[in-house]
Amino acid sequence: MTTTQQKKFIDLLKEIFQFDQADLDFGIYRIMNQKRDEVTNFLEKELVPQAQKAFEKYKNADIETIKQQIEDLEKKLSDMGVAKESSEKYKTLTEQLNQGVDVTALENEVFSDLTSFFRRYYDNGDFISLRRYKKDVYAIPYEGEEVKLHWANSDQYYVKTSEYFRDYTFKLPSERTVHFKLIEANTEQNNNKAQEGKERRFILFEDDPIKEENGELFIHFEYRPGEGKQTQKQLNESALEKIFTIKGNADWLQELQTLSPTEKNKKRTILEKYLNDYTARNTFDYFIHKDLGGFLRRELDFFIKNEIMHLDDLDTENEKRFEQYLSKVKVIKSIGEKIIAFLEQIEDFQKKLWLKKKFVIETNYCISLDRIPEELYEEISQNEQQIDEWKKLFSIDELSNFTKPLSVKFLSENRYLLLDTKFFSSNFTDKLLAQIENIDGNADGLLIHSENFQALNLLQEKYQKSIKSIYIDPPYNTNSTPIIYKNGYKHSSWLSLMKDRLEFSKPLMDKKSVCAIAIDDTEMVNLMSVLKGSFTNHRISPITLVHNPKGSITKDFNRVHEYAIFITNEDEKNVINRTLEENDTPRKMRRWGENSLRTERRLSFYPIYIKDGKITRIGDVPSDEFSPAGRNVRQENGEIEIWPIDQNGIERRWNFGLDTIKSNLDRIAIIENDGVFDLFLTHELTVPKTVWSGGEYDAGNYGNTLLINMLGKKLFDFPKSINTVKRSISLSTLNENKDIILDYFAGSGTTGHAVVELNRENGSDLKYILVEMGEYFNTVTKPRIQKAIYSKDWKDGKPVSREGSSHMFKYIKLESYEDALNNIQLKRSSQQQSAMTELMSSEAKEEYLLSYMLEVEAEGSSSLLNTEAFRNPFDYKMMITNGTESKLTNVDLVETFNYLIGLHIKTIDLIKGIKVITGTLRTGENTLVLWRNTDEVTNEQLEDFFKKQGYNTRDSEFERIYVNGDNHLENLKLAENKWKVVLIEEEFKRLMFDVQDM
Length: 998
Known about the structure:
By secondary structure, this protein is α+β, with helices and mostly antiparallel strands. The chain has 29 helices and 42 strands. The strands form 12 sheets. It has an 11-stranded mixed β-sheet with strand order 13-12-33-14-30-29-15-16-20-17-28, with helices on both faces. Strands 6, 7, 8, 9 and 10 form a 5-stranded mixed β-sheet that branches. Strands 36-37-38-39-42 form a 5-stranded mixed β-sheet. The two termini are 47 Å apart. Residues 185-196 have low confidence and may be disordered.
């Protein structure tokens, strides 16, 4: 018979193993539900009996009889008024009881202790690393540092996204759309002391629970501490009851009551299904532990030594009692370690899916028409989807030369219109890309629609030590802009979010790179501590920025500032560029005083030619024997030669040598005095100050208002002033270089917009990479970049000057962690089942279940790379979720592989059914990649194609050649374990899972 303690223990394990969420069909819940019956059977029929079996030898058949005799005797003595201690029979029975073993009590102690141990760390889908030292006191890992920063989730990955938090959307069978919309809670809940310690819940907003708008239904919730002790499940049940009794919207409510039954809940409605899904997604699973098994094993040892084993219990006079005591400890350790092994398997499986490099789901390009061959214009002019997009973005229908149908002439006259390949067939895109040389070299930007951890992971190989400037504006974690966080772990969640992403960005930086991070007071101190721990041997310089001149009233002050923290390498000088500041009075460019003579620096003595008040050219350094005729020497062509000679005829030198004068011409003025021309410096290069103030940094005018003018309405909160970002980038990049700027909290796209403007203003060739996971990627981030390219100025969503730029950017979308989970299929083949049943011992089966089952049975799932599907790599499919809708979607294996090997693409072509990509690896190796449908292009056809293209594995045109499918191409050994011709499938799998823990 199952005891109360056994039931509590089993119930806890079912909760920890996610079996109590049987109705949830996403993520790890769906995976674990596939194994619920098998694991439950193991827990109840095999694991629990192991404790009973361990204590079997201590079982005494007479123990219950003695207990009953003592109970009867106590009653009889009490009725007689005799003290039980005076009864010899009572003493004898008590001694017999003490010598015996109460096996049931012993088992209960084991299960009670195990329940207590696992309960203390588990919290709504997560294990929190609270290292026990003693009651209510915790230990942290300290290794003698002078200052130590530690937070509750420091050894966990933060994996929660806000995608489903504020606006959760689903479709009804009629294809109508329903939203769960989170409204702003009242100020009473904002970290008010009265609310501390209370868990926040999703609560139906009773003042305005539902409304229909533009043919869609919105159901409103608050996210705040509840009034009583109701669980989220109870609140959901209450919300369902209230919604279904609301008057009005009868057709909506009727459809929401459509049944969506499960085995456990036959009467579940569609609304109940999605409400449970919504609240569960935002309540459970905020973290993945980096080493759950190691942590729990250490804690179990500590628990046993400090809370189970006590010196007073080591009674050596009673050997049987001592043996029983040690057996209890062994059973706790044995069962505890088996549970830990299974938990470790689940957590490590999730960690593998989190850390694996994600598939590219979609790849497209936006290219200005001036870069597209005119022979394609006819086809472009007939694409109605593209034309509608141009009307929406660029208001082309308001141009005087706009016609229906659109003419080729119109396209020729509007060269900065951006073509978007998503509106065109793959055949058209193939034709277009085949005509672009050096694709990556000519691309000005890259937009990635993805969670930023996953994007940074995929960028590692291609962009290692290649990013010159990083600018990020992460969530400030204020009351108005909090991240999604676990109850009680607001700041530690934010620190885990930031720490891992900062660590992932470090390999992308070289020794001269600069990282700038926008932040305000809420997390400033925490961020500084993280940076000092992560960026050792770096200078960390906070800049105070007046971004809100009107201010924001707090309880004590009117706050007008925030910060920009700059990180630079301690071993490098002059990494931050000097800035130009205007002189009150221009100063002479000719040096004077100490170290100012021609003889002291001969390369700074040369003529500068002027004509009509402008500098026309720079002369050469003359021989030492030559001396000019004077300060000004007039030339026959009208030019005047100006030399650095003072009023006394002494030959001095310019402030600049020949190597730097040209880059400083924009701050040199020509001034005439008494007929003599001289050169003066109007601006000085100065070290940037640590306080930035001025109207140009106002986030209201140059952030919010600017963005509204571009998009036509407010679609995004708290955009940065574009001037703040431009200055931050200018301080860390050089105009003459093709420096890359990375922003992995891209938001509205201010960083990309800033790069476009800097290139337009300075004639520079800076490039950008933007990463954003929000759904506004398609409504704000990407459209903003498109608009910034097409026209430099906007008003009410329409272009003003239409002064655009020649431009090309790529945009891709990545598989999400949720997609990776949702594409796992656990399969046990008949051969595997037979082996388990007939060949494996009970111990081997137990070990398989506890440690290997998920890894083995998930093999071949599409998110874990099904190499069999590489036979036709152009038709690799996965279920991809958009909102709450999942559909079978083509995966771009070709583009994914390009990132896995770090290929800088030169050309892409499709020749006779073979996708041909050429480029260079980060190592500089020229590389050829060939993709084919192996059912259509045989090995013989591949070899024939190889020869006709003039390829040869023995020549030096390509140092590396990658081909999918077994082939007969001649191979050459380049080095130990390195071959010239590489099978794509093998390299793909190796690189996709070649990720180390952070």
